[in-house]
Write a structure and sequence with these properties.
The protein is α/β, with parallel strands linked by helices and 390 residues long. 25% of the residues lie in helices and 27% in strands.
Length: 390
């Protein structure tokens, strides 16, 4: 029996792998996508679904570059979700069409200056006291409506998966070896040949790079987060609390459903909470929520925590860039035509896919007709993290 062959095999079924799959199939390449667990199970499903347009970076020294990269990518999402261009993402669930950003006394002038500057590329509107939601109101507090969409990231994976036809299989990769101008992948479903291989497995890219004789530390870094899910929230909320002279929100809150409203909480709380136990992180979350919201009935809420290891690529200088990272793995063990992709942020997946298509097109075009992978089951789609980690 002959070994199935494809122009490209993509390893990893998060938002980056799925958008790369759409771009390559749309360009005529035969593609097989391999996912070892569930589509959107990793960083995609664990994200807060915010399509950042630059406001998050308002207080960062590199704000202008980061904001420009995020805004360009968000526009690609806008076109796709409206059906104007790109993959058909009209079925993506939009949870909020804008975010709130509220600030406390002491840093108001700094935030106001950033909002008025060229650093922020999205629409930012200051709210009157009457427009601020009652839960958010506090003395000397200012609030803004920020033009950043929040989506259900798993629904985006569903839409991308359906946007083009092609092979998607649930299978872990055991080895990648160059052979005769091709690459042979040994997987749980048997052997597969590929003209090119694309690594989109997030944290799993480290293991795949090691298979190719590379030192993962030279290619990527992990940024751990300790997120909090708060059930029994009084209502949906999507916003950033900026309450310190930092380039990170003190709290970033988005909302989901699980028999009621669940607040999914990140920001500085999640970053500083990495060293805390679950009980310590819950206590810290209660304290932060109490400081932020004067009238919040914390006794009616229950909490759990979710640990995430976010993988981010390094550029050729070993630094974390503002935009996505797409690099060719050109070592002897890889045989060339192996590409590693990290979108950096959910919003930047379309730019990562466009960069990959340009780099791949410079070295090889479509040539193989593709095949089915008999015996391989199709991967399921992930559940929201607060459901998986009850």
């Amino acid at each position: 029996m002959s070994t199935p062959g494809f122009d490209v095999v993509i390893v990893g079924g998060g938002i980056a792998g799925l958008w790369c799959r759409w771009a390559l199939v749309n360009a005529g390449y035969s593609v097989a996508l391999l996912e070892r667990s569930a589509l959107a199970h990793g960083q995609t499903g664990a994200s807060q679904g915010i399509l950042h347009r630059g406001v998050k970076y308002a207080m960062s020294p590199d704000a202008s570059r980061a904001a420009a990269a995020a805004d360009s990518s968000a526009q690609a999402w806008d076109r796709a979700m409206s059906g104007r261009a790109g993959p058909d993402l009209t079925s993506v669930r939009v949870l909020a069409k804008s975010m709130l950003m509220w600030t406390d006394a002491g840093i108001l002038s700094r935030i106001t200056g950033a909002v008025a500057s060229r650093l922020l590329t999205s629409h930012v509107e200051r709210l009157t006291d009457e427009q601020i939601p009652p839960l958010v109101r506090a003395p000397a507090r200012a609030a803004y409506r920020v033009g950043e969409t929040v989506i259900d990231a798993v629904s985006a994976a569903h839409a991308l998966g359906a946007a083009v036809k092609g092979v998607m299989a649930r299978a872990a990769v055991r080895s990648i070896m160059p052979t005769g101008g091709m690459h042979r992948l040994e997987t749980e479903c048997g052997s597969i040949e590929a003209g090119a291989v694309v690594l989109c497995a997030g944290q799993g890219n480290g293991e795949l790079l090691a298979m190719l004789g590379e030192d993962p530390a030279q290619w990527m870094q992990l940024r751990d987060l300790h997120m909090v899910a708060a059930r029994g929230a009084p209502g949906e909320l999507f916003g950033h609390w900026i309450a310190a002279a930092s380039d990170k929100p003190r709290l970033t809150i988005t909302s989901g459903q699980d028999g009621g409203v669940v607040w999914y909480i990140g920001g500085d709380l999640a970053e500083r909470g990495v060293s805390r136990s679950e009980s310590e992180q819950i206590a810290a979350a209660r304290q932060e929520l109490g400081a932020c919201f004067r009238d919040l009935a914390l006794e009616q809420m229950s909490f759990s925590t979710i640990r995430i290891a976010r993988a981010e690529g390094k550029d050729k200088f070993g630094k974390r860039p503002d935009g996505p990272v797409v690099r060719e793995v050109a070592g002897k063990a890889s045989g060339g035509r192996v590409f590693a992709v990290w979108p950096t942020k959910l919003v930047m997946a379309p730019v990562a896919a466009a960069q990959l298509l340009e780099m791949l097109g410079a070295v090889t075009g479509p040539s193989l007709s593709g095949a089915s992978l008999g015996g391989c089951a199709s991967p399921d789609y992930a559940l929201p993290p607060w459901v998986r980690h009850r």
